[in-house]
């Protein structure tokens, strides 16, 4: 759960960026999480480790708002995530999923620009600043030279770096990575 350096520049003595309290969740009557609690401060890297099927991906889906907990609270930067709309959550949390479904006919730049959607109004086109943010994210992930290529022509590792670039372009203070070293 790394936080971009710009989110913490000049901040001294700041409280937790992420507070997860007493999460309870289950699928089809099977309890997966009971009382899960976690705190992460800005700039801190936290790993959730466990065997397959232990609920690691479920925790990330709960934090990102894809799933809703039966009980508990998730706050990012002081905001309760369950009370926010999708765009508001997208400005706080970005996600690199374990096995993303990618639009293979999209150019890499177009996919990375999708990370800017939480910052755009309905039917608004990207501005030059959005292209600049996306270019910087591709530079950080060493994919800028691939910007004009379609995702179908990229290797698995290049696609993974492209998804990370899209998450970075979102400029959310909380970045969730599910199996980030896959491919």
Shape: globular
Secondary-structure-based class equals alpha+beta
The share of residues in extended strands comes to 15-25%
Number of contiguous helices = 5
Mean pLDDT: 89
* Poorly predicted segments: 1-13
Summarize the biggest pleated sheet: 4 strands, antiparallel
> What strand order characterises the main sheet?
2-1-3-4
The percent range for helix content is 25-40%
Q: Please provide the count of β strands.
A: 6
Report Rg.
17 Å
Q: What is the succession of H and E elements?
A: EEHEEHEHHHE
Q: Tell me the quaternary state.
A: single chain
Q: What is the terminal separation in angstroms? A: 19 Å
Structure notes:
The chain is of the alpha+beta class. Helices cover 27% and strands 20% of the residues. It has five helices and six strands. The strands form two sheets. A four-stranded antiparallel β-sheet has the order 2-1-3-4, with helices on one face. A two-stranded parallel sheet has the order 5-6. It is globular, with a radius of gyration of 17 Å. The relative contact order is 0.17. The model is unreliable at 1-13 (pLDDT under 50).
